[in-house]
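FAQ: What does a multi-protein file look like?

Like this. Sequence, then tokens, then the next protein.
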Amino acid sequence: MKPAAYQRGTVLILSLVFAAMLAVVTATVVQTATQQLHMAGNDQFRTVTRQHAQSVAAALAKNPHNFQLEKWVGHVNCPLASGQSDCDSRALLVPNVKVDSGALTFDYRVVRLAPLVSTLSRLSPNDEGHTGVDDFATFEIEVRVIGDGASVHVVQGVAVEVDRPTTLYRTHWREPGVDPL
């Protein structure tokens, strides 16, 4: 049997090893909790940013003057003050959307998609029982919102009736890179 002084030193060393292991576990738990908090904050910021982008797209979709039927397929209409270099015209009206933008940057445009006339079947309460086929021009509204460390890009499709250019139909929502076309 070992002397008592030698055994007391062993207990001290074992206590220090257990304390060190407890400190490592505690540090790992704190680091994981902090990382999860950051991820939740980023997710919340991205959700709010997506909602801002969708509200801008919805506001742009309400104004028939944003859709130029006389323009060619692939035509890009941007706002007057846009810094985009790939715009064919700068006649896009700025949407009247109240957004607490803070450090957000909004970039939006309307792109002509389909040939001058494409046909879509429709049935709407406003059509007074009309269930035929009419001529439509299709567009996509692209909205990008860039903020601190996050960006969102949403696209809304719009069909404009050629005979009644003030009649607009929203056709689809998508988020490039997330939703397939």
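And here is the next protein:
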Amino acid sequence: MEKLKAGGETSAYCTSCKDMRHHVVVAMSGDVPAKVECLSCHKQHKFKAGPPGTKAAKVAKISSGGSAVKTKSARPAAGSVPAFSGPNPLEAILASRGTSSARSYSPAERYAIGELVSHPSFGIGAVTATPSPGKMSVLFRDTTRLLLHERAPAVVAPVAKLAPPPRREDIPTGPADRPPKVKPIL
């Protein structure tokens, strides 16, 4: 049997239909579908090899190789790469420079490669690359993360303050405000 790929069809448990249905593979994670679209209800959801509570839901058989692969895996946080296998290169940078030269992180400021950054959530890190305008790759103790830089702060447009409508007592009354007088026909 051929290997699954995005756009191909597979049988999976539909979380909307609550039944095993044919699905189109939308996204792949290695050799296992990550996201599928049901051909019956057209809803997209994560790939489930079988109904909840069955062994097939936890382990998916890959038809080409016949080996079992877990569908749920520990994924790193969005915008990061896996942790380092050897000694962390950040430790060498911090040993040579110290943490006193680290600048406080702000998305509005510009950073150069090699600068130390102090992030409020991730701690001390070193800028390793600028892959595209407005983005920088920062090496932290646990992982490398993609952060924003050189972004203009969001400008809040001034909101025009509306005046309340005038009171009935303040509105001038005159002949134009009254309905016209109608002569009786008889």
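Q: Is there any per-entry metadata?
A: Some entries carry free-text notes. For the entry above: Helices lie at 55-58, 89-97.
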